[in-house]
């Protein structure tokens, strides 16, 4: 075992062999109350406290007790808020590149910020390692941030040293952060990922980042910018976060401040003031749903529209928190989730042109189906309704040339009725009739 009780292993240890022995020790402990083989004292004591607290070793569902506006207000007023630029500069950029997560907790173990690899954030949501969740020992069992806060020491937890089995695939290194004046523990900085996070140098890295964070707090105190102690209630209302697409001052009510393009795109593009922002697939779906429902959607409604059933509400809320950080609090509110000002979409523009009978202009705008790779039921419904409205209008009113333009789009390539309408609408002498007739013969053969 490690010479230091706080490090997971000394240099030269084989992580796979250690992981196997810890797994056996953990299983034996759960069955008998005593581990089979050596386990660090700090880990064994934490296992016993976790068991006494009633933590279920078969699930990882720490409560997410701060959401949306409450979470935003709490952490913006928290004394660790000023250290976030330091944490992002020293850890987050490299975490993204190395498929890791970086978290900052408050003194009770609640996760206030979780950043890093988007792939790992998605995986971590399955064990409720999300912003607003309580990862205290009594809620989540043995984990590095909880022990760092309890023991006031930098510590690593490796694989099966976690009390809950679903967390065994993770390892973490955490260090407490102190008030530079009172010495009070304000929270912890944590790095989470695979086996490599339990390597000796990772404990040094997280400890050094905590020291840099404390130096930043000390400098702010000397400059007169001291924050409220962690033990105080945060009564100061936070100023709204302003993202890159926040509402400009003086924007007239009802006027769109941004435009979302989703037709023919696998990822939506948000445009405002000459700037373009490419969104993730999930943020594209969420923003389209919100733009299509001006009265707002609850987390339960979004879960149904994204997943076909009510599930993973914590995942929806985590994604909405990220979307709010991107857009700003003044553009997106919660309970229900709602855009505070209209965001126009290319889908809405196509519909407006169809409503006024301008089917040629509607076709010019129609670059393909809505988010073609999305399987979210709410998006599929918008996709089908938009396509059907355009198709019906063209069948009723369009000339042969306009119909052929639509027929050549991917979503109409096998639409026999559209191709037959093209053949009927094209003039008898048009050279395009031969190509249309040949395509229809291929479709008929495929159907046969």
UniProtKB/TrEMBL annotation:
Pfam families named in the record: GAF (PF01590)
UniProt cross-references to SMART domains, sorted A to Z: Trans_reg_C
Region: Disordered, residue numbers: 226-256
Keywords from the named record: DNA-binding
All residue ranges annotated as the OmpR/PhoB-type domain in the record: 274-339
Matches recorded under Gene3D superfamilies: 3.30.450.40
Protein name from the UniProt record: GAF domain-containing protein
């Amino acid at each position: 075992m490690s010479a230091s009780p706080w490090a997971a292993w000394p240099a030269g240890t084989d992580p796979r062999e250690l992981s196997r022995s810890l797994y056996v020790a953990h299983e034996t402990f759960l069955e008998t109350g005593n581990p089979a083989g050596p386990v660090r004292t700090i880990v064994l004591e934490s296992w016993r406290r976790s068991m006494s607290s009633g933590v279920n070793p078969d699930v990882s569902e720490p409560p997410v007790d701060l959401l949306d506006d409450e979470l935003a207000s709490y952490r913006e007023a928290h004394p660790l808020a000023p250290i976030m630029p330091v944490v992002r500069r020293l850890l987050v950029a490299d975490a993204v590149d190395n498929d890791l997560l970086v978290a900052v907790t408050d003194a009770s173990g609640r996760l206030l910020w979780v950043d890093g690899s988007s792939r790992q954030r998605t995986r971590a949501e399955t064990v409720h390692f999300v912003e607003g969740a309580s990862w205290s020992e009594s809620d989540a069992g043995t984990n590095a941030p909880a022990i760092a806060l309890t023991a006031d020491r930098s510590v690593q937890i490796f694989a099966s040293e976690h009390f809950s089995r679903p967390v065994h695939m993770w390892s973490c290194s955490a260090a407490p952060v102190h008030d530079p004046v009172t010495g009070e523990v304000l929270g912890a900085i944590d790095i989470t990922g695979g086996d490599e996070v339990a390597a000796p140098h990772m404990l040094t890295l997280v400890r050094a980042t905590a020291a840099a964070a404390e130096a930043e707090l000390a400098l702010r105190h000397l400059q007169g910018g001291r924050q409220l102690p962690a033990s105080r209630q945060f009564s100061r209302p936070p100023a709204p976060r302003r993202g890159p697409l926040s509402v400009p001052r003086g924007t007239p009510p009802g006027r769109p401040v941004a435009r979302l393009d989703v037709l023919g795109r696998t990822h939506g593009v948000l445009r405002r003031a000459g700037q373009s922002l490419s969104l993730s697939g999930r943020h594209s779906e969420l923003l389209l749903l919100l733009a299509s429902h001006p009265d707002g959607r609850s987390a339960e409604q979004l879960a149904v529209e994204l997943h076909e059933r009510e599930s993973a509400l914590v995942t929806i809320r985590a994604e909405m928190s990220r979307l709010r950080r991107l857009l700003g609090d003044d553009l997106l509110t919660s309970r229900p989730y709602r855009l505070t000002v209209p965001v126009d979409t290319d889908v809405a523009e196509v519909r407006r042109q169809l409503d006024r009978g301008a089917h040629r202009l509607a076709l010019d705008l129609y670059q393909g189906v809505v988010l073609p790779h999305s399987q979210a039921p709410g998006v599929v419904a918008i996709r089908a309704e938009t396509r059907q409205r355009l198709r019906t209008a063209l069948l009723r009113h369009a000339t042969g040339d306009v119909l052929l333009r639509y027929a050549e789009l991917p979503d109409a390539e096998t639409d026999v009725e559209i191709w037959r309408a093209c053949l009927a609408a094209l003039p008898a002498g048009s050279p395009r009739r031969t190509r249309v007739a040949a395509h229809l013969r291929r479709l008929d053969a495929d159907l046969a």
